[in-house]
Amino acid sequence: MTLPTTAATWPEEPEPLAVAGAPVPEYGAGSLADLLPTIAAHQGVPGLTPLIPELTPADRNCVFLIDGLGWEQIRSHPDEAPYLSSLLHTSRGGTGRPITVGFPATTAASLASVGTGLAPGLHGLAGYTVRDPATGALMNQLRWKPYTDPRAWQPYPTVFQLAHAAGIHTAQVSSPIFEHTPLTQIALSGGTFHGRLGGEERIDFAAEQLGAADRSLIYTYYSDVDGMGHRYGVDSDAWRGQLMYVDRLVQRLAEQLPARSALYVTADHGMIDVPFDADSRIDFDEDWELRAGVALLGGEGRARHVYAVPGAESDVLAVWREVLGDRFWVASRAEAVEAGWFGPSVDERVTGRIGDVIAAACDDAVIIASVHEPNESAMVGMHGSMTPVEQLVPLIEVRP
Question: How many CB atoms lie within 10 A of CB 211?
Fold first, then answer.
């Protein structure tokens, strides 16, 4: 894969302590974006380099991504996830360790990182919502609203497309509702999409596709762990029930692995429950200090892109740092890019999508917008920032 080399450049200045203290994702050695390039490079796909050294080649590879299932959640629930827990360390024919997802730790950014093998600063899905420099309006990159040309927004090929072009049997097995979405088109396309509704049906078909050729690269996905976490929290009965179910799905798939194959179980982010009190849920729509000088509020509660009125950028940065104190890492666009929050480099087309100010939570706080984002503001479980509970996801490898 030919990667872009352009990156935004900024004046040199001292790095604030709040920015220096942020735990930057391990791009290039242990991030979600490194998984598929490593797998496909071992399969002989031209232009790719193995980036995760402990992964060894397999002719047939399946990636099972479980939306919202962080490393810490598995570790904290061994009774509900006995099979996954048994694989967190070398045992039972598998190995497991945590990897970082990238910033922000959100589904649109992470799925694009998985599929393209690029960090958010290159693929450009740099938040839940970001400003479109061409229109000045917020763009929801999960729901793709308002619509914009997907290929102009994310022009790089997916690893699936490169693998398919190299003669590898490539397929995605997911819910039928995702088949024609712009996010699938620019992040997860290549080979053939197979829509299957039920979890067991999806798993069984993924196993069938895995063994359908001498060389195969199969992707499958399950979303309801994330949904229950958002609605009820990651320690609720509903969430625990989903964890128990997905644990059985992983074991079901592992037991069907054909010869010369490998299963990789991972996720797009972890999740944290945020208390329903005024100290933890800071309401942008009710806080005149945070609103001052702000033209648009993007991102999500724990990873905010703040777009200032022209000329007010420095004032907004100073106020947000003062108001949020030590509960958020608050950086200017220049500081966040220089610190590598979005990856080692940022495409010029992506720079204007990043907020003038970025605020990433470092404890259990969140910046809600009760009027403009009522549904998101009512969620129990949230994610987006660079704390371990959000950043660390499993990379579990199982061999037959």
Answer: 18
Q: What is the DSSP letter of 31?
A: B
- What residue ranges do the domains of the chain occupy? 17-23+274-382, 32-273+387-398
Model pLDDT, residue 88: 86
Q: Is the pTM of this model over 0.85?
A: yes
Report how far residue 288's alpha carbon sits from residue 296's, in angstroms, rounded to the nearest whole number: 14
Q: E strands of the chain, at which residues?
A: 60-66, 94-100, 129-131, 138-140, 169-174, 192-195, 216-222, 261-266, 272-273, 281-283, 294-300, 303-308, 328-332, 357-361, 366-368, 381-382, 392-398
Question: What fold characterizes domain 17-23+274-382?
Answer: Gyrase A; domain 2 (3.30.1360)
Among candidate residues 279, 282, 273, 312, the one with its CA nearest the CA of residue 296: 312
Q: In whole angstroms, how large is the CA radius of gyration of the chain? A: 20
For each successive 10 residues of the chain (400 residues), what is the average pLDDT? Answer: 34 47 90 97 96 93 98 96 88 73 98 98 98 97 95 97 98 96 97 95 97 97 97 96 98 97 98 96 98 98 98 98 94 96 97 98 97 97 97 95
Q: What is 32-273+387-398's CATH topology? A: Alkaline Phosphatase, subunit A (3.40.720)
How far apart are the two ends of the chain, measured CA to CA in Å?
A: 30
Residues 298, 302, 308: CA angle, nearest 5 degrees: 35
